[in-house]
Amino acid sequence: MTTPRPADAPPWWLARTMRLFQPNLRLCDAPATDPENLAAGLAADGVNTLLINCGGIFAHYPTTLPFHNRHPELPAGFDFFGRILEAAHAHDIRVIGRFDLSKTMTPPDGGQAGWYFRRADDSVPEFSGTYAACINGTYYRECGPKMVEEALRRYHVDGLFFNMFGNPASDYGRRPLGPCHCPACRTRWRDQTGRELPAEPTPDYRAFIDACARDVAQEMRALIHRLRPGAGLFTYRSDAVDGIANEANTFFDHPLPLWPYHASANVEQARTTHPDKFAFNICIGFEDYSVRLNAIAPHHARLRHWQNLAHGTGLLWASIGGFPPDDATAWNASREIYRWVAEHEDLYLGQENPARILLLGQGHSESFRGCFRLLSEEHLPFAASGNARDLEDRLHAYACIIASGPVDPRLEAWVQAGGKLLALGAEPPPFGVSLPVARQEEGRGSYWRIHDTAGLDELAGLPWLFFHGPWAKLPATDRIPLLSWIPPTPTGPPELVFHGAAETMVPGIFRSQLGRGELIWLPWEAGLLYHRHSATSHRALLVGLLNQLLPADAALLQSDAHPLVEVVLRRQPHTGRTLLHLINLTGHAGTAYHPPFRHGPIRIKLKGTFSRAYAHRAAQALALDHQPTSATLTVSQLEDYEVVSLDPAT
Questions:
Q1: How far apart are CA 617 and CA 619, in angstroms?
Q2: Residue 499 main-chain phi, psi, to 5 deg
Q3: In what order do the strands lie in the sheet with 630-635?
Q4: Which of 339, 445, 522, 562 is the most buried (most CB within 10 A)?
Q5: DSSP string for residues in 548-589
Q6: Per-residue pLDDT averaged across 428-435, rounded?
Q7: CB atoms within 10 A of CB 177
Q8: Cα–Cα distances in Å, from 45 out to 138, 285, 343?
Q9: Do residues 650 and 611 touch, judged by C-beta distance below 8 A?
């Protein structure tokens, strides 16, 4: 399974559409699992990759290392992982071994003193009988490589996955852990900074721990590649790995409104930022860490699968227990997708995003999420990334960039060269704004008055835009701006609403020509407000500005689909095809995921010329209405998902 590949061939995780199942095994599960039955059942459901317990907290094989705790309920000498590996490989299923080095069952008073994460009071965090290890301690840096080397020398694994790699910010109970004060961290921090460790995890402390984890990950990756050429390392990092792990999950402490684009955003950001790495986006099949025996809603599971595939990765599923899970409702809804993709794998290989719009921002931020949803609702093809640093040599591919958070200084050269930048938020861009600004915290009852809307037809008939939260106050102008500030006004009783409202000439928008490009800065949280409130006025302003910024050749797609149909456009260079994915989100309602409404007909106009269009879920050819530089097709009816392939004109 790990024979050397040609130097120019992609690794196996990029050369196939991964269809992964991860049974997070409890102590009771391994003794009750028959390896052959497991492998046969997975293969029957279309699974081609198994991620399963190997070592770390418990060794699921007969380890000879004294510090590696053996599984207490497996018979002495029984090689559970080895049997699983053999059975899976016999069914052409790749196997990724799971390690967790973040914790150990050995208590501090019975183990090596240098292993552990230590709070400022020298206590070691404990959870469910496990004790936190530190990334700089000898358990990670000395014992960990020995465990991994033992497994790699024994088994022809196809990869290793590391859970909670590094020092987590909190434990499974969401309790913050704070900075580690173990001797190794104290020494490393003091040597690098000349200071004592902070009481709270400051940005420079987080960067320090991240760098330490990167060093260990690089060593682990080199070890894996040396002992098992062709095997990969997968964990929750973007550097020093072969696959960037993320999770699409539904946990109790997630803020509302519930985010239905979790899988789309995770994969989109990973694929855009690091196209050479696999987007290892795991769909978590349970509701919360505290209630792992309950599965998520079946239609929520299907939605995540389709989003993973459309945005350029495979199917990756994790649940608690064996196979199938005890609560198999969500998995039963997923089986059909796994089997279907096994027969249509070629549709999902080597997809590239041709979008001319780039959304920058942190995936968890409300501003990013508001912009992501708005672009999806408007059916504007776009790419997304968490930073501009890794895209610096690829920015020329984008005509318009939306910065949903602080603007990276690297974007200045791109704007000067002709790029169009829309910046959102109270922090002024580091270039192009020479005016003095003052940060404000505005309460409710504040407005922007809308003035001349020439060129912004979307705002016609709208007199006001409400806003609240942080913003940057610009100097008053001597010309009436598009948006002018009205300070907080009375909100009640009704007779006094807006009574005595003050008019100002303080603008709510800043525009500047920079070289051959343009900067538009909204000095308030328009993206965040759209995420929270979905106001028609905020949508109209953002869409209007985007329409002004986008050049005509950036309009790749137009559709009359419902706003809750996610339309994803992709190119497939090795086949020359264009792929059009339609994902039906109409079943999402608040915190519920119901069967989506059947929707259609849907008309879609695509830039380009094509010879044939085929809807693969419906198994039917689609008529094309040709124009000189575009073509229009109609999808008669959309269930939960459709993928249309368009062959290039000959």
A1: 5
A2: -65, 130
A3: 557-559, 602-607, 630-635, 624-626
A4: 522
A5: HHS-GGG--EEE---TTEEEEEEEETTTTEEEEEEEE-TTEE
A6: 95
A7: 15
A8: 42, 16, 12
A9: yes
Six-digit token pair at 12? Answer: 């196996």
8 Å CB contact between 314 and 279: no
- Give the sheet arrangement for strand 420-424, strand by strand: 382-385, 357-360, 400-403, 420-424, 517-522, 510-514
Q: What pLDDT does residue 248 have?
A: 97
Residue with tokens 């699992």: 33
Q: Is the CB of residue 421 less than 8 Å from the CB of residue 379?
A: no
Length of the chain: 650
Q: How do residues 567-622 score in pLDDT, each as one tens digit?
A: 999 999 999 999 999 999 999 999 999 999 999 999 999 999 999 999 999 999 99
Burial of 465 (0-12, 13-18, 19+ CB in 10 A): buried
Would you state the structure tokens that stand for residue 643, as one six-digit string?
Answer: 């993928």
Q: What is the C-alpha separation between 150 and 152, in angstroms, rounded?
A: 6
Rounded Cα–Cα distance for residues 240 and 236 (Å): 10
Q: In what order do the strands lie in the sheet with 438-450?
A: 464-473, 438-450, 483-486
CA 640 to chain centroid: 21
Question: Which of these, 409, 414, 415, lies nearest to 430 by C-alpha position?
Answer: 409
Which stretch of DSSP H or E encloses residue 226? helix 203-227
Strand ranges for 223-371 from DSSP E = 232-235, 243-248, 278-284, 315-320, 357-360
- Sequence-ordered list of residues with C-beta below 8 angstroms from that of 183, at least 6 positions apart, any chain: 114
Helix (H) or strand (E) holding 415: helix 411-416
Please, which pLDDT band fits residue 2 given cuts at 50, 70 and 90?
A: very low
Angle at 235 between CA 231 and CA 236, to 5 degrees: 155
Strands 464-473 and 438-450, by their bridges, are antiparallel
Q: How far is CA 301 from the centre of its chain?
A: 16
In the three-class reduction of DSSP (H, G, I as helix; E, B as strand; rest coil), residue 397 is classed as: helix
